[in-house]
């Protein structure tokens, strides 16, 4: 299922902050996939659910977010195999 987010959601990713415009749901045994346009470069990357965080929002009481596992800032977006599964799992 492909869901367009209206409005887009600001997220933190391993490649920096950006706005998520799409969520891809392959079903109950797969991570949600977030398509994010990065603020700094404008690039569009797709990240697995465990690789994104909501941005801080004091009004909503979210004053801290957990750290995303760092791969030297060079972590590529998720590679999928033909079945839509993460290729590294």
Tell me the Rg in angstroms.
Answer: 13 Å
| SSE class | mainly beta
N-C termini distance: 21 Å
Strand content: 35-45%
Number of β-strand runs: 5
Number of helical regions: 0
Could you name the ranges where pLDDT drops below 50 across 5 or more consecutive residues? Answer: 71-76
Percent of residues in helices comes to under 10%
Looking at the structure, what is the overall shape? Answer: globular
Order of helices and strands: EEEEE
Tell me about the largest β-sheet. Answer: 5 strands, antiparallel
Arrangement of strands in the largest sheet: 4-3-2-1-5
Question: What is the mean predicted local confidence, pLDDT?
Answer: 84
Question: What does this entry look like structurally?
Answer:
Mean pLDDT is 84; it is low at 71-76. The chain has 89 residues and is mainly beta. The chain has a domain at 2-60. It has strands at residues 2-13, 16-24, 33-38, 44-48, 53-54.
Put the structure in a nutshell:
This protein has 89 residues and is an all-beta fold. The chain has strands at 2-13, 16-24, 33-38, 44-48, 53-54. The chain has a domain at 2-60.
């Amino acid at each position: 299922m492909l869901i367009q987010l209206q409005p887009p959601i600001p997220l933190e990713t391993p490649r920096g902050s950006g706005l998520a415009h799409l969520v891809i749901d392959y079903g109950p045994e797969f991570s949600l996939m977030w398509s994010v346009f990065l603020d700094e470069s404008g690039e569009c990357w797709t990240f697995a659910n465990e690789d994104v965080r909501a941005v801080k929002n004091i009004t909503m009481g979210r004053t801290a977010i957990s750290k995303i596992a760092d791969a030297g800032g060079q972590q590529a977006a998720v590679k999928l195999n033909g079945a839509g599964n993460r290729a590294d799992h």
